[in-house]
């Protein structure tokens, strides 16, 4: 038996919304400690990894490990039935054929129930190697999201370069070339801070189309964490307060030179 109630159901709505453009069908892993999922996009360029701890739920029960295969597109459609102020309860029996989803709104006494059919997905669990990142940039989510959006109108690819003093996002396209440089800024307003932890400078190119898709998660976290290593994929990390973490992994683009 599995049952998990999230009093702020809007968080789950936002998570589903921020991964639905990247992955289609996913196996949701249920354990007594919490909920996790890992899935790659169809072109094998990006990977989504989500971990939600049992402590972040109002109520959580999982008697044993379970795997629930769901279509994210269908789950996103079901989530539209929920208001932002609804509590959401997920439940499934052992060897279940469906995931029961209940939306409850205490204010207007409304309860919505839906049984989402489960699917069988053959997917290997990828071991993500523990990496000591050479550069970690923590940046305001809205600021970073805006930079990626604006640069995408000028080029499909961005060169991300880190030094101990700044992080630079540079583009080169038919329109011309340019860059946005953000210096280490630990100002009084926490929301405006940019924090650089650089042991070794890194310079890599990434597809802005993917970065913009990842940034749909900006609404679940005030800060975006970029973890870079010259020999590894980029990790874009969104911490979900008191609940867990959503990470995206993106392979760098290999330049033609």
UniProtKB/TrEMBL annotation:
Biological process, per Gene Ontology: leading strand elongation; mismatch repair; regulation of DNA replication; translesion synthesis
Principal location class: nucleus
SUPFAM superfamilies: DNA clamp
Taxonomy, superkingdom: Eukaryota
CDD domains in UniProt: PCNA
Subcellular location: Nucleus
InterPro entries: DNA_clamp_sf (IPR046938), Pr_cel_nuc_antig (IPR000730), Pr_cel_nuc_antig_C (IPR022649), Pr_cel_nuc_antig_CS (IPR022659), Pr_cel_nuc_antig_N (IPR022648)
Pfam hit, one: PCNA_C
Function per UniProt: This protein is an auxiliary protein of DNA polymerase delta and is involved in the control of eukaryotic DNA replication by increasing the polymerase's processivity during elongation of the leading strand.
Matches recorded under NCBIfam families: pcna (TIGR00590)
Family affiliation: Belongs to the PCNA family.
Protein name: DNA sliding clamp PCNA
């Amino acid at each position: 038996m599995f049952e998990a109630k999230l009093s702020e159901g809007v968080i789950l709505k936002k998570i589903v919304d921020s991964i639905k453009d990247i992955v289609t069908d996913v196996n949701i892993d249920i354990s007594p400690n919490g909920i996790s999922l890992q899935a790659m996009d169809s072109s094998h360029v990006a990977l989504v990894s989500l971990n939600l701890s049992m402590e972040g739920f109002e109520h959580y029960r999982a008697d044993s490990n379970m795997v629930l295969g769901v279509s994210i597109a269908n789950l996103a459609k079901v989530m539209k039935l929920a208001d932002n102020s609804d509590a959401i309860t997920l439940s499934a029996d052992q060897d279940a054929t469906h995931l029961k989803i209940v939306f409850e709104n205490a204010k207007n006494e409304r309860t919505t129930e839906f049984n989402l059919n489960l699917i069988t997905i053959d997917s290997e669990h990828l071991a993500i190697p523990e990496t000591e990142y050479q550069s970690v940039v923590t940046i305001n989510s809205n600021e970073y999201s805006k930079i990626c959006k604006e640069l995408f109108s000028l080029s499909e690819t961005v060169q991300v370069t880190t030094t101990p003093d700044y992080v630079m996002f540079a583009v080169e396209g038919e329109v011309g070339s340019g860059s946005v440089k953000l210096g280490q800024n630990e100002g009084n307003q926490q929301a405006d801070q940019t924090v650089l932890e650089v042991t070794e400078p890194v310079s890599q190119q990434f597809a802005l189309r993917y970065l913009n898709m990842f940034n749909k998660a900006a609404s679940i976290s005030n800060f975006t964490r970029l973890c870079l290593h010259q020999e590894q994929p980029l990790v874009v990390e969104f911490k979900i307060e008191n609940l867990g973490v959503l990470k995206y992994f993106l392979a760098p683009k290999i330049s033609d030179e």
